[in-house]
Known about the structure:
Layout: E1 3-5, E2 12-14, E3 18-19, H1 34-46, E4 51-53, H2 62-71, E5 79-84, E6 86-88, E7 94-96, H3 100-114, E8 119-124, H4 133-145, E9 149-155, H5 159-168, E10 173-177, H6 189-196, E11 199-203, H7 239-252, H8 256-265, H9 280-288, H10 296-308, H11 318-321
Parallel strand pairs: 3-4, 4-5, 5-8, 8-9, 9-10, 10-11
Antiparallel strand pairs: 1-2, 6-7
Helix pairs in contact: 1-2, 3-4, 4-5, 5-6, 7-8, 7-10
Amino acid sequence: MKTRELGRTxxxxxxxxxxxxxxxxxxxxxxxxxxxxxxxxxxxxxxxVTLWDTADIYGFGANEELLRQVLVPNRARVFLATKFxxxxxxxxxxxxxxxxxxxxxxxxASLQRLGIETIDLYYAHRIDPAVPVEEMVGAMAALVQAGKxxxxxxxxASAASLRRAAATHPIAALQSEYSIFxxxxxxxxxxxxxxxxxxxxxxxxxxxxxxTNPGPQLAEKDLRRSMPRFGEEVGDANTTLLAGLHQxxxxxxxxTAQLALAWLLAQDAHxxxxxxxxxxxxxxxxxxxxxxxxxxxxxHRLQALLAAHPVVGARYxxxxxxxxxx
Length: 326
């Protein structure tokens, strides 16, 4: 596996990471097979996929506990990223809480669940306008000074918040949704990352499965049920774009997922996608994309396809959209 530098830290991580959100319980995209998830984590070690991404809210802690089983005996081989900021709301959902007074406790809880002494990359999962960014990052910086965290990151933050954070303490990474299907970050956020020397870590780089499974049958608790892009009102609106991507990938002898990841990797040298999966076969497919290079002609053809067929459907519902780019 090729590697890339995380921001300007000098730290090398795998060019493609592993999003682990769906591995524990049915928190994200339907039922999970714990044994296959554990096998996928072991296989990631074999493939040298070193950047693993989780959060304390995934499965309400169950995801971190699952990773512990493979992480602890292989600590030196994994660059572990986790997040704080969402808390259970008592009704089966979650709310944002990034108050400085709770950050240390959230970190300690994650360390205990993960079974490790230091988190490699600690993200604030969202920005809360009611909490000054400087105060939040200041509390996170105290964790670095205490040796509990190595590097700091933000998630779904605006360019303005990113600049305020970076002025308080070095920020190594910004995690935001970015894919062929979601390109909002290209206007202001990616340029800000480039200006500040911060790695952009795209989550859902395969469009939450839309690029690989255009008409998924969604489980009862699947998060995508709340996303307009997967709603009945969108229907087959994105079919032409998907067909064009599939044709281009087929002609190149790769999968549509590999085409999408190769395109994303080419957008910036410090960009590190974290495609999520809980199955070994998809991990193999995703990891192989790090070796794919698009020709100038292929890139132009892909760009023309995107320009001709704009994506239909918002990535989040109204409530969730209010929590991003703040």
